[in-house]
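Entry type: protein chain
Record version: 2
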Amino acid sequence: MQGNEIPRLYAHVCIPLSVVDPGAEGVDTESEEFLCVHGLLLQYIPGPQLKYFPEPGIAQILDKPLHDALRALAQRAVDAMYEINKFGILLKKNSNNVIVENSNNVSVDSPRKPCIIDFAEAVFKEDLVEIWIKQRETSDLVATEDLPWHMDIEYWEEAKRDSNPEALAQDFNMYLFRVGVFGVQCKIPDYQEIIAQLRLRLQNGELQSIQTQGD
């Protein structure tokens, strides 16, 4: 997904405190290690956030190819969010998490692709599993057969409640409505079916956990 649906990660960086605050006193080697500033060097995506994506002019509104391009853009954003869910990550519902890459940053004529950014406010499957386990007595966990399956089901139940792809589709629909593109229905994940299939396979005794890993 890196370089396509999400920015590419180039490096982990560590900036010494002596660089951030050259005037700091009493900074020794040990202090540098613990007080340094950590960060990530990410690919720059040129383009506006969905919230600030420009609206086309009157002539453009009547342009069917542009309508088709915007519909495809909306579906790609929803699909990208679902792929992130499959990696075990649930993002906060916020249209500002989407940058629409564009050749000139300001025109609506040639939107290239959506890029999902800002993973600062996210819930990870591992964290949900840890909470789920802590909420249950040890005896209950021992008695629970096929624990990985139950944890997968709990994860997708949370994904259904979070409804992030649906919220993103609604944000795009609001934008499309403003620019005069109507009747767009993005295909969103069928979480009910995902959960039903997990439960069915659990009942059938298939013990191997379905991994929440993207392609």
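Comment: Residues 68 and 181 are 9 Å apart (CA to CA).
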